[in-house]
UniProtKB/TrEMBL annotation:
<dbReference type="InterPro" id="IPR011834">
    <property type="entry name" value="Agluc_phsphrylas"/>
</dbReference>
<keyword id="KW-0021">Allosteric enzyme</keyword>
<feature type="domain" description="DUF3417">
    <location>
        <begin position="16"/>
        <end position="126"/>
    </location>
</feature>
<protein>
    <recommendedName>
        <fullName>glycogen phosphorylase</fullName>
        <ecNumber>2.4.1.1</ecNumber>
    </recommendedName>
</protein>
<dbReference type="InterPro" id="IPR024517">
    <property type="entry name" value="Glycogen_phosphorylase_DUF3417"/>
</dbReference>
<keyword id="KW-0119">Carbohydrate metabolism</keyword>
<keyword id="KW-0328">Glycosyltransferase</keyword>
<keyword id="KW-0808">Transferase</keyword>
<dbReference type="InterPro" id="IPR035090">
    <property type="entry name" value="Pyridoxal_P_attach_site"/>
</dbReference>
<dbReference type="Pfam" id="PF11897">
    <property type="entry name" value="DUF3417"/>
</dbReference>
<comment type="function">
    <text>Phosphorylase is an important allosteric enzyme in carbohydrate metabolism. Enzymes from different sources differ in their regulatory mechanisms and in their natural substrates. However, all known phosphorylases share catalytic and structural properties.</text>
</comment>
<dbReference type="InterPro" id="IPR052182">
    <property type="entry name" value="Glycogen/Maltodextrin_Phosph"/>
</dbReference>
<comment type="similarity">
    <text>Belongs to the glycogen phosphorylase family.</text>
</comment>
<dbReference type="InterPro" id="IPR000811">
    <property type="entry name" value="Glyco_trans_35"/>
</dbReference>
<dbReference type="Pfam" id="PF00343">
    <property type="entry name" value="Phosphorylase"/>
</dbReference>
<keyword id="KW-0663">Pyridoxal phosphate</keyword>
Length: 851
């Protein structure tokens, strides 16, 4: 630095030589981020600048010195490499993929999906995510691209994104918000028919219009539309709507959600119209944040002259809602008066935000137990005929949590299914293990892995070598990052020599990185500090922990937990065995999950909806040590990992003590001995056998590719079919009227008799179940008469009953033959439920009549 002051200023514009122009196309499609060769191509241009820009090729191209540019422009081998990548991208973007093959020559081929999410974690260089929900949404887009699923993402382009984390000298979390100009990101303006940057708008109270600019990012074959209110034409309070993710107060949050939901529908429709593409027919709300999208769609139909009930039925037929939290406190809720204020009801009671929509009807859709609150998850569920949780256990918990929305039906019949999360294999497998994963997959391309079953293709020694390589990479990087962190905490570089020797590339490494949220119990391991210290400092069989995670800026409790952990590491004489690395993000996640031998997960059951970081560890040959919760609950098996038992009873603190004890026991008696039990070549055979089992048994099951296929076959394609059915307005209007008629006449429905025939039948032979019903004013085509049977519990209740449709034999009489295989005491009853081709589940109307 000099004291010379600038007299004038000038700007040096980047120049991209003609022969290097294709680099810009490569950089503008984030596909490069999951293709190693393309990633390496960019890095090879200038490794230091690559790292300085945070692996952002757009910034690289803007900042690379002209001299280096010219060198590359004349480097034959570089140009050859670049052209190979261009050709590969072209092939990727045009080839025939799973979706088109699967739906060929069926009506399903026409289905297209709009996927709304508040955050998307695609790559570190597109900072519009905070954690698991965003990374999941990013992986969803990538796998949709790999499979050729016609899906458009809709999200927000935040000026500041989420915060970067550092620590104070005392170990207290510091938040830094950096602004990101769109020009430095892999986003391009969406242009309208006149070639202007596309804008849509949303009307806020006081007749104030917020303009929203629409950008697009290319995620392979998938377009991600991003909404941005940071426009000069907006007043300051509107410019800041898209300033940061999960920042600000509830007022800020509701504005964001209105921009995403209402603005997002307008944006995606305009985008399709401009491009002459069909508008999406299926709308997927990834969490309740996007709930208002359904209100906008209803408003559009009312504007076309449709009535409320028909418009609602049409939206429901084509909407999918995914819930991600089993914790009621995790759900977005607003005060009613706030929602009413933003809906802006006029004298006629209809909304000015979404013209024509009756405000009181919208308020009904968001109602919950607390009459003063508007619940975004309830809104989502009431606007969607399709709904799911994100792991099997989470599906069950959600059915319990939301059963009040489907009165008179038991939990198992609540129409919320589950699709277990998955992670995008090419993104989350680290370079050194990719060839082994490919070999395990029988040489198939990663993205088309059916099962990683060719376990003989890889020797134990090969697997172990790669594991050592990945652990060493983690240790090396952690040393550098811990040193950086101490400098930020005020230490002088000269005092930090010790950081060069922290961690041991050969020691059993336990990873733990996730949001610092109370239920995830970051500090469970600190329950008995002396015991932990003994585990860490064992001379023959040392254990080390690498830990990362951000607390939400407003979560003081979370920040305290974090500080407690950092202080323990600082003060307990274990700073070389337990390290906290600040600023957990996608790029850190990649080497952290890959380098850990054990991925530790100890949430309070059943509060972890799914969790995905453990899946990423599996993909890289890490082993799971977890509470039976989220995704692990459905695969937990001693052959592939370790399950920490859950406390049988007790209050929260007894539970934590008990489970921490179980954790220490497992580490001391099972995990550590197995890791250090080596053969004559130094290979831990038993350990590696477990790694092999884990990768081959659950690698493919936990891939986002499996997840997106499941979404397609179980939800998107059925929703596409019902959307097309509902697009026939006559039919939907008749359905809406049918619902009213059914509700009005339900009181007249009676089950007059039910009989299971013989008092005893032999196992395996058929019983004839019979019933007589009186439907009052309803017709037999309005209902299903169902036999319900199952084992009888102590109080005569049916345990996990089977439901079968009975067939009419004569007026009011129904019967069905059933075969019960297992001998025992069974109970039987009959019920009548509404039935209609446009009804997905009998529970939707909350009407049922039992014998
Ligand atoms: C995978 C991932 C998460 C989610 O981890 P969970 O196990 O679901 O808590 C959060 N943040 C980042 C950066 C990730 O990569």
């Amino acid at each position: 630095m000099t004291d010379v002051k600038a007299f004038d200023s000038f700007h040096v514009l980047p120049v991209l030589p003609e022969s290097l122009q294709p680099l810009r196309d490569l950089a503008m499609n984030l596909r490069w981020s999951w293709r190693e060769q393309a990633h390496n191509l960019f890095r090879s241009m200038d490794p230091a600048l690559w790292s300085k820009t945070g692996h952002n090729p757009i910034m690289m191209l803007q900042q690379l010195p002209a001299s280096r540019m010219n060198e590359l422009a004349n480097d034959e081998s570089f140009l050859l490499w670049m052209n190979q990548e261009v050709a590969d991208l072209h092939e990727y973007l045009t080839k025939d993929l799973w979706f088109s093959k699967t739906t060929a020559e069926t009506e399903d081929a026409a289905t297209s999906i709009a996927y709304f999410s508040m955050e998307f974690g695609v790559h570190q260089s597109l900072p519009i995510y905070s954690g698991g929900l965003g990374v999941l949404a990013g992986d969803h887009l990538k796998s949709a691209s790999d499979l050729g699923v016609p899906l458009v993402g809709i999200g927000m382009l935040y000026t500041f994104g989420y915060f970067s984390q550092s620590l104070s000298a005392e170990g207290w979390q510091q938040e830094i918000y950096e602004s990101h100009a769109p020009e430095t990101l892999a986003v391009a303006p969406v242009l309208d028919e006149q070639g202007n940057h596309l804008e849509v708008s949303v009307l806020f109270p006081g007749d104030r219009i917020a303009n929203i600019r629409v950008w697009k990012a290319a995620i392979g074959r998938v377009t991600l539309l991003l909404l941005d209110t940071n426009l000069e034409s907006n007043p300051e309070d509107f410019r800041s709507i898209t300033d940061r993710l999960y920042g600000g107060d509830v007022e800020h949050r509701i504005k964001q959600e209105l921009v995403l939901g209402v603005g997002g529908v307008r944006a995606v429709q305009r985008y399709c119209d401009i491009n002459g593409a069909a508008r999406p027919d299926v709308y997927h709300m990834n969490e309740g944040h996007a709930g208002f999208l359904g209100i906008e769609r209803i408003g559009q139909m009312i504007g076309e002259g449709e009535d409320w009930a028909t418009a609602l039925a049409t939206v429901r037929a084509s909407t999918l809602f995914t819930t991600h939290t089993p914790v009621p406190a995790g759900i977005d809720r607003f005060e009613n008066h706030m929602v009413e204020r933003y809906l802006q009801g006029g004298d006629d009671g209809t909304s000015r935000l979404t013209p024509g929509v009756p405000v009181h009807e919208v308020m009904q859709l968001g109602r919950e137990d607390d009459p003063s609150r508007f619940n975004m998850a309830h809104l989502g569920l009431r606007l969607a005929q399709y709904a799911n949780g994100v792991a099997k256990l989470h599906g069950a918990v959600s059915r319990g949590m939301f059963k009040g929305l489907y009165p008179n039906f038991d939990e198992p019949e609540v129409p919320i299914t589950s699709i277990t999360n998955g992670v995008h294999t090419p993104t989350w497998t680290r370079g050194p293990i990719k060839p082994l994963v490919n070999a395990l997959a029988g040489g198939e391309e990663l993205a088309t892995v059916e099962a990683w079953k060719h376990t003989d293709a890889v020797t134990a020694a090969e697997l172990w070598n790669v594991r050592n390589e990945l652990r060493t990479e983690l240790v090396t990087r952690a040393r550098g990052l811990v040193s950086d962190s101490w400098q930020e905490r005020g230490a002088q570089e000269a005092e930090l020599g010790w950081t060069k020797n922290i961690l041991d590339p050969n020691a059993l490494t336990v990873g733990f990185a996730r949001r610092v949220s109370t239920y995830k119990r970051l500090t469970l391991m600190l329950q008995q500090p002396d015991r932990l210290r003994a585990i860490l400092l064992n001379e023959e069989r040392p254990v080390q922990f690498v830990i990362a995670g951000k607390a939400h800026p407003a979560d003081m409790g979370g920040k305290q937990l974090l500080q407690e952990l950092v202080r323990f590491a600082d003060e307990a004489g274990v700073r070389d065995r337990i390290v906290f690395i600040p600023d957990y993000n996608i790029s850190m996640g990649k080497f952290l999950v890959a380098g850990s031998d054990i991925w530790l997960n100890n949430p309070v059951r059943p509060q972890e909806a799914s969790g995905t970081s453990g899946m990423k560890a599996v993909m890289n040959g890490g082993l799971t040590l977890s509470i039976s919760d989220g995704w692990w609950d459905e695969v937990a098996d001693d052959e592939i990992g370790w399950t920490i038992p859950t406390a049988p009873h007790g209050d929260d603190s007894q539970r934590d003590r008990w489970e921490a004890q179980a954790l220490y026991d497992m580490l001391e008696h099972e995990v550590v001995p197995m890791f250090y039990d080596r053969d004559e070549d130094g290979v831990p055979q038993e350990w590696i056998a477990k790694v092999r089992n884990s990768m081959s048994q659950i690698g493919a099951r936990m891939s986002a590719e499996r997840m997106v296929r499941d979404y397609c076959t179980e939800l998107y394609l059925p929703a596409g079919r019902s959307a097309r059915m509902a697009a026939d307005r006559e039919r939907t209007r008749a359905f809406a009227q049918w619902k009213v008629r059914i509700a009005e006449n339900w009181d007249g429905v009676r089950v007059l008799s039910a009989s299971a025939g013989e008092a005893a039948t032999a196992a395996g032979s058929a019983s004839r179940l019979q019933a007589t019903v009186d439907l009052g004013a309803l017709m037999s085509s309005d209902v299903a008469v169902q036999g319900v049977y199952g084992r009888r519990g102590a109080d005569g209740e049916l345990i996990a009953p089977t439901v079968v449709n009975m067939t009419p034999t004569s007026d009011g009489n129904y019967e069905v033959a059933t075969v019960v295989d297992a001998p025992g005491d069974y109970g039987f009853t009959v019920r009548v439920v509404p039935a209609h081709e446009m009804l997905r589940s009998p529970a939707e109307l909350g009407l049922v009549r039992y014998a």
